[in-house]
Design goal:
231 residues, 7 strands
Length: 231
């Protein structure tokens, strides 16, 4: 299946937290969207890799995406090396996305910055025909954009997700083991506080405010974006 957009995420729930509204809005517009999670999030304070995979499947149903895969590489210790790049190149060539959405260029969690650079390198290398991946032809996405995660980064552009906020929130809450649950006996974590989901909503409102809407999601681009006409 050819995808219009492929979202790359270091951990299950990165995509839901940071760009679920953008995913949903593009699906509503008739685009095909998929997600590739790099790790199973097995180093998370709460839950297990098995639980997170099931939660990921639940979130997938809520989002309505067309494909989702998990590379199964090591949470916290994955490297941007040849072996890992080749795994991701196969995914890129399999789905042939026009646009890739990737982790933040720098963030609180070191996997996010590593994931961003892995995405950048794999997208470039995927276009080199001398790199062989079976019968899959070379393919290079037209654009790689980076969603903004925990740390505030000034966006290069913002997508209006106002109409899709409730569905985004439902997709986030599918990861029940990770976020606030007054009945959970697991240890508290950075993201398990009730204030964390309030922060996610506040960030969406902040991004929305920049473009005069209620909720938004911000992105950065390493390339200068072309504007053909102002009006």
């Amino acid at each position: 299946m050819k995808l219009d957009i492929l979202v790359m995420a270091a951990h299950p729930d990165d995509a839901e937290l940071s760009c679920a509204g953008t995913i949903i809005s593009h699906i509503a517009a008739g685009k095909k969207v998929g997600i590739v999670d790099f790790t199973r999030g097995e180093l998370g304070t709460r839950g297990t890799s098995e639980i997170r995979l099931q939660e990921s499947a639940d979130a997938t149903q809520i989002l309505g995406i067309h494909a989702r895969e998990n590379l199964g590489i090591r949470d916290g210790f994955f490297r941007n090396d040849e072996e890992t790049q080749l795994k991701l190149i196969e995914i890129i060539r399999k789905y042939q996305p026009e646009v890739v959405l990737a982790n933040a260029l720098e963030d609180r969690h070191p996997d996010h910055g590593k994931g961003a650079q892995l995405a950048i390198d794999a997208c470039f290398l995927s276009g080199l025909r001398q790199i062989k991946t079976g019968d899959l032809p070379a393919w290079r996405p037209k654009q790689v954009y980076h969603y903004i995660q925990d740390r505030y980064l000034e966006p290069d552009f913002v997508i209006d997700i106002t109409a899709h906020w409730d569905q985004k929130e439902a997709a986030i809450r599918a990861f029940k083991s990770q976020f606030f649950d007054p009945n959970s006996a697991e240890p508290a974590s950075y993201i398990s506080s009730p204030d964390f989901l309030n922060f996610i909503q506040a960030r969406a409102m902040e991004m929305g405010h920049k473009i005069g809407v209620k909720y938004g999601e911000g992105f950065q681009s390493q390339k200068t974006l072309e504007v053909k006409l102002f009006l």
